[in-house]
Design brief:
five-stranded antiparallel β-sheet, alpha/beta, 2 domains, 14 helices, Aspartate Aminotransferase, domain 1, binds pyridoxal-5'-phosphate, Aspartate Aminotransferase, domain 2, single chain, 437 residues, seven-stranded mixed β-sheet, 18% strand, globular
Protein backbone atom coordinates (compact mmCIF):
# COMPACT_ATOMS: atom_id res chain seq x y z
CA UNK A 1 0.00 0.00 0.00
CA UNK A 2 1.28 3.47 -0.84
CA UNK A 3 2.05 5.69 2.17
CA UNK A 4 -0.41 8.54 2.79
CA UNK A 5 2.35 11.11 2.55
CA UNK A 6 5.38 11.13 0.26
CA UNK A 7 7.27 13.67 2.35
CA UNK A 8 10.50 12.67 4.12
CA UNK A 9 11.09 15.02 7.09
CA UNK A 10 14.51 16.42 8.11
CA UNK A 11 16.44 14.99 11.07
CA UNK A 12 13.47 12.73 11.83
CA UNK A 13 13.10 9.03 12.60
CA UNK A 14 10.08 8.60 10.37
CA UNK A 15 8.97 5.35 12.07
CA UNK A 16 8.12 7.35 15.23
CA UNK A 17 5.53 9.47 13.44
CA UNK A 18 2.17 8.15 12.18
CA UNK A 19 1.36 11.57 10.81
CA UNK A 20 2.48 15.18 11.08
CA UNK A 21 0.60 18.23 12.31
CA UNK A 22 -0.35 20.14 9.18
CA UNK A 23 0.13 23.90 9.41
CA UNK A 24 -2.34 25.79 7.24
CA UNK A 25 -1.93 29.36 8.43
CA UNK A 26 0.20 31.71 10.50
CA UNK A 27 -1.08 34.61 12.57
CA UNK A 28 1.44 36.69 14.49
CA UNK A 29 3.35 34.38 16.85
CA UNK A 30 0.88 31.56 16.25
CA UNK A 31 0.81 28.61 13.86
CA UNK A 32 -2.65 27.27 13.08
CA UNK A 33 -3.08 23.62 12.13
CA UNK A 34 -5.65 21.91 9.91
CA UNK A 35 -7.84 21.16 12.96
CA UNK A 36 -7.87 24.81 13.98
CA UNK A 37 -5.44 24.32 16.91
CA UNK A 38 -3.23 27.30 17.69
CA UNK A 39 0.42 26.68 18.58
CA UNK A 40 2.76 29.41 19.73
CA UNK A 41 5.85 29.17 17.50
CA UNK A 42 8.49 28.51 20.19
CA UNK A 43 11.32 27.88 17.72
CA UNK A 44 10.65 30.73 15.25
CA UNK A 45 10.13 28.12 12.50
CA UNK A 46 13.74 26.89 12.87
CA UNK A 47 15.21 29.98 14.46
CA UNK A 48 14.51 32.38 11.60
CA UNK A 49 11.18 34.13 12.15
CA UNK A 50 11.49 37.73 13.33
CA UNK A 51 8.04 39.41 13.27
CA UNK A 52 5.70 36.48 13.61
CA UNK A 53 3.71 35.13 10.67
CA UNK A 54 1.75 36.99 8.00
CA UNK A 55 3.49 40.32 8.61
CA UNK A 56 1.73 42.55 6.13
CA UNK A 57 4.75 44.69 5.17
CA UNK A 58 6.77 41.60 4.21
CA UNK A 59 3.89 40.10 2.28
CA UNK A 60 3.47 43.39 0.47
CA UNK A 61 7.20 43.44 -0.39
CA UNK A 62 6.81 39.99 -1.96
CA UNK A 63 3.74 41.08 -3.89
CA UNK A 64 5.24 44.33 -5.12
CA UNK A 65 8.46 42.72 -6.31
CA UNK A 66 6.60 39.77 -7.90
CA UNK A 67 4.67 42.18 -10.07
CA UNK A 68 7.95 43.51 -11.49
CA UNK A 69 10.10 40.39 -11.77
CA UNK A 70 10.47 37.31 -9.60
CA UNK A 71 13.88 36.17 -10.71
CA UNK A 72 16.72 37.42 -12.85
CA UNK A 73 20.28 36.31 -12.25
CA UNK A 74 23.45 38.04 -11.10
CA UNK A 75 25.41 36.34 -13.88
CA UNK A 76 26.27 39.32 -16.15
CA UNK A 77 23.30 41.27 -14.73
CA UNK A 78 22.30 43.07 -11.59
CA UNK A 79 19.03 44.26 -10.00
CA UNK A 80 17.99 47.14 -7.74
CA UNK A 81 17.04 44.98 -4.78
CA UNK A 82 20.37 43.13 -4.71
CA UNK A 83 22.22 46.44 -5.04
CA UNK A 84 20.40 48.23 -2.25
CA UNK A 85 20.53 45.23 0.09
CA UNK A 86 24.29 44.85 -0.37
CA UNK A 87 24.75 48.56 0.43
CA UNK A 88 22.64 48.19 3.54
CA UNK A 89 24.45 45.08 4.74
CA UNK A 90 27.84 46.70 4.23
CA UNK A 91 26.47 49.76 6.06
CA UNK A 92 25.58 47.81 9.20
CA UNK A 93 28.71 45.61 9.12
CA UNK A 94 31.90 47.45 10.15
CA UNK A 95 35.01 46.64 8.05
CA UNK A 96 32.97 44.78 5.41
CA UNK A 97 33.21 45.78 1.77
CA UNK A 98 31.35 43.37 -0.56
CA UNK A 99 28.43 40.95 -0.33
CA UNK A 100 28.17 37.56 -2.00
CA UNK A 101 24.63 36.15 -2.02
CA UNK A 102 23.54 32.54 -1.63
CA UNK A 103 20.46 30.45 -0.93
CA UNK A 104 20.86 29.22 2.65
CA UNK A 105 23.22 29.17 5.60
CA UNK A 106 25.12 26.06 4.57
CA UNK A 107 25.98 27.46 1.15
CA UNK A 108 26.94 30.83 2.65
CA UNK A 109 29.48 28.97 4.79
CA UNK A 110 30.76 26.87 1.88
CA UNK A 111 31.40 30.14 0.05
CA UNK A 112 33.29 31.59 3.00
CA UNK A 113 35.58 28.51 3.06
CA UNK A 114 36.26 28.73 -0.67
CA UNK A 115 36.95 32.46 -0.41
CA UNK A 116 39.48 31.91 2.38
CA UNK A 117 41.30 29.12 0.53
CA UNK A 118 41.41 31.06 -2.71
CA UNK A 119 42.48 34.25 -0.90
CA UNK A 120 45.70 32.54 0.18
CA UNK A 121 46.24 31.15 -3.32
CA UNK A 122 45.67 34.63 -4.75
CA UNK A 123 48.34 35.85 -2.34
CA UNK A 124 50.74 33.13 -3.52
CA UNK A 125 50.59 31.30 -0.16
CA UNK A 126 49.55 27.88 -1.40
CA UNK A 127 50.53 26.26 1.88
CA UNK A 128 47.72 27.83 3.86
CA UNK A 129 44.97 25.30 3.33
CA UNK A 130 43.74 24.10 6.73
CA UNK A 131 40.79 25.21 8.83
CA UNK A 132 40.87 25.35 12.62
CA UNK A 133 37.71 25.55 14.67
CA UNK A 134 36.06 24.87 18.02
CA UNK A 135 34.59 21.43 18.56
CA UNK A 136 30.77 21.38 18.48
CA UNK A 137 30.50 24.34 16.14
CA UNK A 138 27.79 23.87 13.50
CA UNK A 139 27.77 25.46 10.06
CA UNK A 140 25.25 23.44 8.06
CA UNK A 141 24.72 20.05 6.44
CA UNK A 142 26.75 20.16 3.20
CA UNK A 143 30.11 18.38 3.09
CA UNK A 144 32.36 21.39 3.68
CA UNK A 145 30.07 22.65 6.42
CA UNK A 146 30.04 19.21 8.08
CA UNK A 147 33.84 19.00 7.87
CA UNK A 148 34.37 22.32 9.61
CA UNK A 149 31.31 22.29 11.86
CA UNK A 150 31.59 18.72 13.02
CA UNK A 151 28.90 17.84 15.56
CA UNK A 152 29.66 14.16 16.24
CA UNK A 153 26.03 13.28 17.06
CA UNK A 154 24.94 14.50 13.63
CA UNK A 155 27.78 13.61 11.29
CA UNK A 156 29.77 10.59 12.49
CA UNK A 157 28.25 8.47 9.65
CA UNK A 158 30.05 10.63 7.11
CA UNK A 159 33.33 11.04 8.96
CA UNK A 160 35.45 9.15 6.41
CA UNK A 161 34.34 11.41 3.59
CA UNK A 162 34.89 14.71 5.44
CA UNK A 163 38.08 16.71 4.97
CA UNK A 164 40.46 17.12 7.87
CA UNK A 165 40.11 20.16 10.10
CA UNK A 166 41.76 21.01 13.40
CA UNK A 167 39.23 20.96 16.22
CA UNK A 168 39.98 22.65 19.54
CA UNK A 169 38.05 20.67 22.21
CA UNK A 170 35.19 22.86 23.45
CA UNK A 171 32.54 21.95 26.00
CA UNK A 172 29.65 23.98 27.33
CA UNK A 173 29.66 25.48 30.81
CA UNK A 174 27.53 22.62 32.24
CA UNK A 175 29.95 19.87 31.31
CA UNK A 176 33.36 21.26 32.13
CA UNK A 177 36.19 19.31 33.78
CA UNK A 178 35.74 19.40 37.59
CA UNK A 179 37.06 22.43 39.48
CA UNK A 180 37.26 24.54 36.33
CA UNK A 181 35.24 27.73 35.95
CA UNK A 182 33.88 28.64 32.49
CA UNK A 183 36.32 31.57 32.40
CA UNK A 184 39.31 29.34 33.24
CA UNK A 185 38.17 26.77 30.68
CA UNK A 186 37.85 29.30 27.89
CA UNK A 187 41.21 30.89 28.83
CA UNK A 188 42.76 27.41 28.42
CA UNK A 189 41.16 27.21 24.93
CA UNK A 190 42.82 30.52 24.06
CA UNK A 191 46.18 29.11 25.09
CA UNK A 192 45.60 26.08 22.88
CA UNK A 193 44.63 28.27 19.95
CA UNK A 194 47.70 30.47 20.41
CA UNK A 195 49.97 27.40 20.55
CA UNK A 196 48.32 25.97 17.46
CA UNK A 197 48.80 29.21 15.53
CA UNK A 198 52.45 29.42 16.63
CA UNK A 199 53.21 25.79 15.71
CA UNK A 200 51.30 25.52 12.44
CA UNK A 201 51.74 27.98 9.58
CA UNK A 202 49.32 26.12 7.29
CA UNK A 203 46.14 27.43 8.87
CA UNK A 204 44.08 29.39 6.36
CA UNK A 205 41.30 30.43 8.73
CA UNK A 206 39.76 29.99 12.14
CA UNK A 207 36.02 29.38 11.84
CA UNK A 208 33.48 29.86 14.62
CA UNK A 209 29.87 30.77 15.32
CA UNK A 210 29.65 34.36 16.49
CA UNK A 211 28.67 34.81 20.15
CA UNK A 212 27.58 31.25 20.90
CA UNK A 213 27.41 27.78 19.46
CA UNK A 214 23.77 26.84 19.12
CA UNK A 215 23.19 23.48 17.41
CA UNK A 216 26.25 22.01 19.18
CA UNK A 217 24.57 22.42 22.56
CA UNK A 218 23.93 26.13 23.33
CA UNK A 219 27.47 27.01 24.39
CA UNK A 220 27.61 30.71 25.19
CA UNK A 221 31.05 32.34 25.07
CA UNK A 222 32.50 34.20 28.04
CA UNK A 223 33.04 37.94 27.64
CA UNK A 224 36.24 38.63 25.73
CA UNK A 225 36.63 35.10 24.32
CA UNK A 226 35.75 35.92 20.71
CA UNK A 227 37.62 39.23 20.92
CA UNK A 228 40.80 37.42 22.00
CA UNK A 229 40.47 34.84 19.22
CA UNK A 230 40.07 37.69 16.76
CA UNK A 231 43.29 39.28 18.08
CA UNK A 232 45.18 35.96 17.90
CA UNK A 233 44.08 35.55 14.29
CA UNK A 234 45.42 39.00 13.39
CA UNK A 235 48.67 38.42 15.28
CA UNK A 236 49.37 35.12 13.50
CA UNK A 237 48.10 35.93 10.01
CA UNK A 238 45.09 33.60 10.19
CA UNK A 239 41.77 34.70 8.68
CA UNK A 240 38.76 34.82 10.98
CA UNK A 241 35.52 33.46 9.50
CA UNK A 242 32.43 34.13 11.60
CA UNK A 243 29.06 32.47 11.25
CA UNK A 244 26.23 34.79 12.34
CA UNK A 245 23.54 32.79 10.58
CA UNK A 246 21.76 31.83 13.79
CA UNK A 247 23.18 34.38 16.23
CA UNK A 248 23.08 37.69 14.33
CA UNK A 249 20.20 40.08 13.59
CA UNK A 250 19.16 40.26 17.23
CA UNK A 251 19.02 36.64 18.34
CA UNK A 252 21.67 37.22 21.02
CA UNK A 253 20.59 40.82 21.61
CA UNK A 254 22.60 42.78 19.02
CA UNK A 255 22.07 43.46 15.35
CA UNK A 256 25.63 42.44 14.45
CA UNK A 257 26.99 40.09 17.03
CA UNK A 258 30.66 40.45 16.05
CA UNK A 259 30.44 44.16 16.89
CA UNK A 260 29.17 43.48 20.40
CA UNK A 261 31.93 40.86 20.76
CA UNK A 262 34.60 43.43 19.77
CA UNK A 263 35.87 41.13 17.07
CA UNK A 264 36.97 41.80 13.49
CA UNK A 265 36.18 39.01 11.07
CA UNK A 266 37.65 38.87 7.56
CA UNK A 267 34.56 37.03 6.35
CA UNK A 268 31.10 36.82 7.96
CA UNK A 269 27.88 35.07 6.93
CA UNK A 270 24.26 36.02 7.60
CA UNK A 271 21.12 33.95 6.93
CA UNK A 272 17.89 32.85 8.63
CA UNK A 273 16.58 36.19 10.01
CA UNK A 274 17.98 38.21 7.09
CA UNK A 275 14.60 37.97 5.35
CA UNK A 276 12.61 37.99 8.59
CA UNK A 277 12.40 34.22 8.09
CA UNK A 278 10.01 34.66 5.14
CA UNK A 279 12.04 33.40 2.21
CA UNK A 280 15.31 31.54 1.80
CA UNK A 281 18.48 33.58 1.38
CA UNK A 282 21.92 34.07 2.91
CA UNK A 283 24.89 36.36 2.39
CA UNK A 284 28.66 36.20 2.85
CA UNK A 285 30.43 39.51 3.46
CA UNK A 286 34.16 40.16 3.06
CA UNK A 287 36.63 42.93 3.84
CA UNK A 288 38.31 44.96 1.11
CA UNK A 289 41.54 43.08 1.71
CA UNK A 290 39.87 39.75 0.87
CA UNK A 291 37.96 41.18 -2.09
CA UNK A 292 40.95 42.94 -3.63
CA UNK A 293 42.96 39.72 -3.74
CA UNK A 294 40.42 38.39 -6.28
CA UNK A 295 41.04 41.25 -8.72
CA UNK A 296 43.42 41.00 -11.67
CA UNK A 297 43.47 40.28 -15.38
CA UNK A 298 40.94 37.66 -16.52
CA UNK A 299 43.81 35.45 -17.65
CA UNK A 300 45.13 35.39 -14.05
CA UNK A 301 42.04 33.33 -13.15
CA UNK A 302 41.77 34.94 -9.73
CA UNK A 303 38.01 35.53 -9.82
CA UNK A 304 35.64 33.62 -7.61
CA UNK A 305 34.60 30.17 -8.76
CA UNK A 306 31.17 30.04 -7.18
CA UNK A 307 27.56 30.92 -8.03
CA UNK A 308 24.04 29.54 -7.70
CA UNK A 309 20.99 29.77 -9.95
CA UNK A 310 19.25 32.02 -7.41
CA UNK A 311 22.26 34.08 -6.26
CA UNK A 312 20.92 37.60 -5.59
CA UNK A 313 17.31 36.68 -6.33
CA UNK A 314 15.37 39.98 -6.43
CA UNK A 315 12.38 38.61 -4.55
CA UNK A 316 14.50 37.47 -1.57
CA UNK A 317 16.47 40.71 -1.63
CA UNK A 318 13.24 42.76 -1.66
CA UNK A 319 12.00 40.95 1.44
CA UNK A 320 15.37 41.39 3.18
CA UNK A 321 15.35 45.12 2.35
CA UNK A 322 11.88 45.53 3.82
CA UNK A 323 12.84 43.43 6.83
CA UNK A 324 15.82 45.67 7.58
CA UNK A 325 13.65 48.79 7.26
CA UNK A 326 11.28 47.29 9.79
CA UNK A 327 14.17 46.67 12.23
CA UNK A 328 14.81 50.43 12.16
CA UNK A 329 11.16 51.49 12.30
CA UNK A 330 10.31 49.19 15.20
CA UNK A 331 13.59 49.83 17.02
CA UNK A 332 13.65 46.06 17.29
CA UNK A 333 17.05 45.57 18.91
CA UNK A 334 16.09 47.82 21.82
CA UNK A 335 12.81 45.96 22.19
CA UNK A 336 14.61 42.60 22.21
CA UNK A 337 16.96 43.78 24.94
CA UNK A 338 13.90 44.51 27.09
CA UNK A 339 11.92 41.38 26.20
CA UNK A 340 14.88 39.11 26.87
CA UNK A 341 14.79 40.16 30.54
CA UNK A 342 11.69 37.95 30.81
CA UNK A 343 13.91 34.95 30.05
CA UNK A 344 16.45 36.09 32.61
CA UNK A 345 13.83 36.56 35.33
CA UNK A 346 12.43 33.09 34.92
CA UNK A 347 15.67 31.10 34.99
CA UNK A 348 15.49 30.21 38.75
CA UNK A 349 11.96 28.84 38.38
CA UNK A 350 12.99 26.64 35.44
CA UNK A 351 16.14 25.44 37.21
CA UNK A 352 13.97 24.38 40.11
CA UNK A 353 12.27 21.64 38.09
CA UNK A 354 13.42 18.15 39.11
CA UNK A 355 14.55 17.18 35.59
CA UNK A 356 16.24 20.43 34.59
CA UNK A 357 20.01 20.20 34.96
CA UNK A 358 20.99 23.52 33.42
CA UNK A 359 19.55 26.59 31.71
CA UNK A 360 21.73 28.54 29.30
CA UNK A 361 20.40 31.85 28.06
CA UNK A 362 21.40 34.90 26.07
CA UNK A 363 19.19 37.44 24.28
CA UNK A 364 16.22 35.68 22.71
CA UNK A 365 17.66 32.20 23.07
CA UNK A 366 17.34 29.68 25.85
CA UNK A 367 18.49 26.06 26.09
CA UNK A 368 17.01 23.95 28.89
CA UNK A 369 18.99 20.78 29.48
CA UNK A 370 16.88 17.85 30.73
CA UNK A 371 18.53 15.25 32.97
CA UNK A 372 17.39 12.13 34.76
CA UNK A 373 19.70 12.72 37.69
CA UNK A 374 20.90 16.21 38.55
CA UNK A 375 23.97 15.05 40.45
CA UNK A 376 25.18 12.73 37.67
CA UNK A 377 23.94 14.97 34.82
CA UNK A 378 22.67 11.94 32.89
CA UNK A 379 20.43 13.04 30.00
CA UNK A 380 16.74 12.10 30.18
CA UNK A 381 15.71 9.22 27.94
CA UNK A 382 12.36 7.87 26.82
CA UNK A 383 11.19 4.97 24.65
CA UNK A 384 10.84 7.44 21.78
CA UNK A 385 13.17 10.33 21.02
CA UNK A 386 13.11 13.17 23.54
CA UNK A 387 12.13 15.49 20.70
CA UNK A 388 9.03 13.44 19.86
CA UNK A 389 7.95 13.20 23.51
CA UNK A 390 8.47 16.93 24.11
CA UNK A 391 6.78 17.91 20.82
CA UNK A 392 3.61 15.89 21.56
CA UNK A 393 3.25 17.18 25.11
CA UNK A 394 4.04 20.77 24.05
CA UNK A 395 1.38 20.55 21.36
CA UNK A 396 -1.21 19.56 23.96
CA UNK A 397 -0.14 22.69 25.86
CA UNK A 398 -0.53 25.04 22.88
CA UNK A 399 3.12 25.52 21.90
CA UNK A 400 5.42 24.26 19.12
CA UNK A 401 8.80 23.04 20.39
CA UNK A 402 11.68 21.10 18.91
CA UNK A 403 14.54 19.86 21.05
CA UNK A 404 18.22 19.38 20.28
CA UNK A 405 18.76 15.97 21.84
CA UNK A 406 17.96 16.47 25.54
CA UNK A 407 17.97 20.27 25.27
CA UNK A 408 14.62 22.03 24.99
CA UNK A 409 15.20 25.05 22.76
CA UNK A 410 13.26 28.27 23.25
CA UNK A 411 14.02 30.41 20.21
CA UNK A 412 10.88 32.51 19.66
CA UNK A 413 10.23 35.09 16.94
CA UNK A 414 12.24 38.14 17.95
CA UNK A 415 9.30 40.54 18.10
CA UNK A 416 7.36 38.37 20.55
CA UNK A 417 5.62 40.37 23.30
CA UNK A 418 6.49 39.93 26.96
CA UNK A 419 3.11 38.35 27.70
CA UNK A 420 3.46 35.89 24.80
CA UNK A 421 6.96 35.00 25.97
CA UNK A 422 5.68 34.40 29.48
CA UNK A 423 2.98 32.16 28.00
CA UNK A 424 5.66 30.21 26.09
CA UNK A 425 7.72 29.78 29.26
CA UNK A 426 4.65 28.82 31.38
CA UNK A 427 3.67 26.17 28.86
CA UNK A 428 7.26 24.92 28.50
CA UNK A 429 7.49 24.46 32.27
CA UNK A 430 4.19 22.57 32.24
CA UNK A 431 5.42 20.40 29.36
CA UNK A 432 8.69 19.52 31.10
CA UNK A 433 6.89 18.69 34.36
CA UNK A 434 4.29 16.54 32.58
CA UNK A 435 6.76 14.43 30.60
CA UNK A 436 8.78 13.76 33.73
CA UNK A 437 5.57 12.11 34.92
C1 LIG B 1 25.19 28.61 12.98
C2 LIG B 1 24.56 28.00 11.76
N1 LIG B 1 25.23 28.02 10.60
C3 LIG B 1 24.71 27.51 9.48
C4 LIG B 1 23.46 26.92 9.48
C5 LIG B 1 22.91 26.32 8.24
O1 LIG B 1 21.89 27.09 7.72
P1 LIG B 1 20.81 26.44 6.71
O2 LIG B 1 20.00 25.48 7.51
O3 LIG B 1 20.05 27.63 6.23
O4 LIG B 1 21.59 25.77 5.63
C6 LIG B 1 22.73 26.88 10.67
C7 LIG B 1 21.40 26.26 10.72
O5 LIG B 1 20.80 26.06 11.73
C8 LIG B 1 23.30 27.42 11.85
O6 LIG B 1 22.66 27.36 13.04
Amino acid sequence: MKPQSSVWHPYTQMSEWDSFTKIVKGQGMWLIDSNGNRLLDGVASMWCNVWGHSKKELIFAIKKQSEKIVHSSLFNLTNDQAESLAKRLVGISPHMHKVFYSDDGSTAMEISFKMALQYWQNKGEKNKSQFATLQNGYHGDTFGAMSVGYVPGFFSKFKNQLYKTIQIPFANSYRLPSNTTPKEYQDQRLEKIEKLFSDNDKIAAFVMESGAQIAGGVNIYQDGFQEKISKLCKKHGVLLILDEIATGFGRLGSLVEYVSQNSKPDIVSYGKMLTGGYITMAATLVTKNIYDSFLGKYSDMRHIYHGHTFTGNPLSCAVANENLSLYDKANLIKKIQKTSKVFEKRVPEILDIKTVGDVRHKGMLMGIELVRDKSKKTPVSFKKSTNKVVFEEAKKNGIYLRTLGNIVMLVPPLAISESELNYLIDRTILTIKNIAG
